[in-house]
């Protein structure tokens, strides 16, 4: 009998252990605060050095805020929106909301007035915790009964620090169950209007297991986690912050400001970061920095990446430039961390997203619900029920029902699985290009284009064509100092023909200063398609 691999053993031995009573704030903070209150939970950069904030301090502050929010009418089931960049205060607010059995509705700091107004109205948010910049984006008819500002009180707006100071630090009687609503994250809106994906407290348990798989089973001595991603979306909050804290791994708070590759490498060294979650788009931007380990002297133990396909080119760069393999993984706001790589368990292959994460069952299905053959493109589907799966779309029962069929949750994303069980993400079904009878995934073309020395970023779409149905069109962001030219285009076409196939090369090109991205760092392909 063949000996099982480490991955196969992990799959066979995995069992979910979900308690009857469970609360995310207790798991992520209070359990550690009870047994090791001085253990660092966060590190905030101050005068170029990381300043620790202990678990005990987070627990007390969140107790105080929860008590004050309760006196102002916030109770179980109420939606409380959060709108501010990464900060200790935003984490305290999350924990306080969970302790009240209310529902946190994180909103990205980059959202504009209309995006915020839509989500506040759609969620029926009762309260908003934000900063001065967030308040400036509110419409007069916001419908909120309570606004709390991180920057102080003013004109009917309460002070965050004031609420924390006045509340009792005594622990709250937490009695939530794993299926009680705790968190509502809006879909990024790559297709259609954003929908609120409602999650129960159990979603954290599933992400703790996923983070163990992709970050070599933390905590290890010296582990310290960081992500440049906004904590308002699943990548920042659920892939990174909350499971790291549950593992006892402190989280470095990202200084405010636009993502800068050089500054990111400097932060890795200054904050002594050992573990990172960095979306593929950010990693591709970091490729522009030469000799980063030599220049900055950081020492990473694990790197995770998700949000879009990483690609073989960026995978190879990461191993060389970062010093460790990049463990790519996949999920959606509705059902996250279900496919992944784990170099520690021997699951690591250039160009592949990974294999099914232990504890989940993932299939690649044809439109009729049958399983695809190896190498055949189909829809990624996750067997239901699953602890990481959402409770449903907020006030959208029809949309929720449409998400399920044949015992699976349908993702709407397209992938193929090879004979070794590795899953290769191709894109959303809407993004697949049909040209002269061929179905073409955009991500592998983009990955090959990135091999060209003049290209910094690339995105590919299908453009309608009377003869071929669609042709491949590439949108390029060139490296500084490079000018568009027919020679570059011809070289890219030859590169794609050689590396992939003759029918996959771009027949048209367009040049942009930057790609249109969602707040989660995903390319908004519908914007590119609208450009023609």
Which SSEs are present, and which pair or pack?
Layout: H1 6-13, H2 24-35, E1 40-46, E2 49-54, H3 55-71, E3 79-83, H4 88-99, E4 103-107, H5 113-123, E5 127-130, H6 132-135, E6 146-149, E7 158-159, H7 160-166, E8 181-186, E9 196-200, H8 203-214, E10 225-226, H9 234-247, E11 251-253, H10 261-270, E12 275-277, H11 280-286, H12 292-296, E13 302-305, H13 312-322, E14 326-330, E15 339-340, E16 355-356, E17 362-365, E18 378-383, E19 392-393, H14 397-402, E20 404-405, E21 408-417, E22 423-428, E23 433-435, E24 438-440, H15 442-449, E25 455-465, E26 469-478, H16 486-499, E27 508-511, H17 525-531
Parallel strand pairs: 1-11, 3-4, 3-5, 5-6, 6-7, 10-11, 10-12, 12-13, 13-14, 26-27
Antiparallel strand pairs: 1-2, 8-9, 9-19, 14-15, 15-16, 17-18, 18-21, 20-21, 21-22, 23-24, 25-26
Helix pairs in contact: 2-3, 2-4, 2-9, 3-4, 3-7, 8-9, 10-11
Give the structure's gist in a few sentences.
The chain is of the alpha/beta class.
Can you walk through the features of this model?
Residues 30-394 form the AMP-dependent synthetase/ligase domain. Belongs to the ATP-dependent AMP-binding enzyme family. This protein has 532 residues and is an alpha/beta fold. Among the domains are: 20-200, 3-Layer(aba) Sandwich (Rossmann fold); 432-531, ANL, C-terminal domain (GMP Synthetase, Chain A, domain 3), CATH 3.30.300. It contains 17 helices and 27 strands. The strands form six sheets. A nine-stranded mixed sheet has the order 2-1-11-10-12-13-14-15-16. A five-stranded parallel sheet has the order 4-3-5-6-7, with helices on both faces. Strands 17, 18, 20, 21 and 22 form a five-stranded antiparallel sheet that branches. Helix 9 (234-247) links the parallel strand 10 (225-226) and strand 11. The chain is globular. The termini are far apart. 49% of the residues are buried. The mean pLDDT is 92.
